[in-house]
Amino acid sequence: MTKYLCLISVLLAQKSHTLLLDRLYAEPLVLDTATFRWVQAQVSEKELLAHVGFLASDPLQGREAGSPYEKIAAMYLIHQHKRFGHPPLLPNGYIHTFPLRRSRPTPPPPATPSKKKKAAPPSPEVVFDTVETWNILAVRRGTLHPTQYVVLSAHYDHIGTTSRGEPFNGADDNGSGTAVLLEAARLLSLLPPPKRSIVFFHTAAEEKGLLGAFRFVRDSLLPLDSIVAVVNTDMLGRTDTLHQKGERYLYAIGSDRATPHLRTIQERVNALCCEWQLDYRYDDPKDPLRLFTRSDHYAFARYGVPAVFYFGGLHEDYHGTGDDVEKLEPERLQRAAVFLALMAWTLANL
Ligand SMILES: [Zn+2]
User: Who surrounds ion ligand 1 at CB < 5 A?
Assistant: First the structure.
């Protein structure tokens, strides 16, 4: 008797651990060709460039997490989701706030005139303070299974200014992914509501160590087993040092770590809508750059949630003051916005 009960409980446990995506996926995967064509015709370069033009402008001072400039960027994101008719995911509004502990070097004391031999200048002391930082979360509610979710994420923070006050505008990192996420949200708002909910997650403090995404998981804002998949975007707007300008490549990282079905869906959607040359070179878990662990999807993927990271690669302006809007390639942004919207649409309608 005990033996059978044990067996039943093991089987039940195994069943409950089957990924939601694996339970939903069925062959043949039928893609919604008419919607795909329609979305391709609607994507707007003007919208994309307006978003990144604002977020990566000098007055935004590099959108550092915890700064007033992060809050200006956050209010811009909220305004856009209101414009698209997307309500907040959380009952108390679009903002998920959490504390951020910062270190600041204090300026050295003024030098006192002395006849003695010049001493080495004292090293600046480091002081800590705590400020608020904001994740921004909006949702397109599903009709049939509103408590099952596809999560689209992109970090909107960047690294502030140089010590001389020159802004790191972060047009590619990650003005590009943020603009693509907003444009995908707009495109999805033009379609009928999907079967499952689509969450638009603008993460905070990614540059401080993926803190916003980790905090989302720590605060259990959604049950992890209710998430079909996470699709994360970072640095999509430029050609990296490993490719030629105009090459239609996109790194897709991690799409088969949790289940082969996410990669299958990605390849089928891509073939029909976007024709990216999906580059899997960073997918190798032994890759020395370990990019899979270096952006926000990892907060979910480490618990086994299917997640994929779309990335355009590193270039000479990465975390430099030259990461500016005029260097972005609008065609890449448009293609990425269509791809993101149609991945979300397909996953949310399985
Ligand atoms: Zn980034």
Answer: 173-174, 234
Ligand 1 centroid to residue 329 C-alpha, Å: 17
13 in a structural domain: no
* Tokens 């480091």, residue located: 126
pLDDT tens per residue across span 19-59: 999 999 999 999 999 999 999 999 999 999 999 999 999 99
Give the domain extent around 256: 31-103+124-348
Helix (H) or strand (E) run with residue 228 in it: strand 227-234
What is the count of structural domains for the chain? 1
Taking the complete model, does pTM exceed 0.70, yes or no? Answer: yes
CA of 113 to the centre of ligand 1 (A): 46
Continuous segment of H or E residues that includes residue 337: helix 330-348
**Is residue 115 assigned to a domain?**
no
- Gap between the Cα atoms of 333 and 312, Å rounded: 10
Ligand 1 centroid from CA 232, angstroms: 11
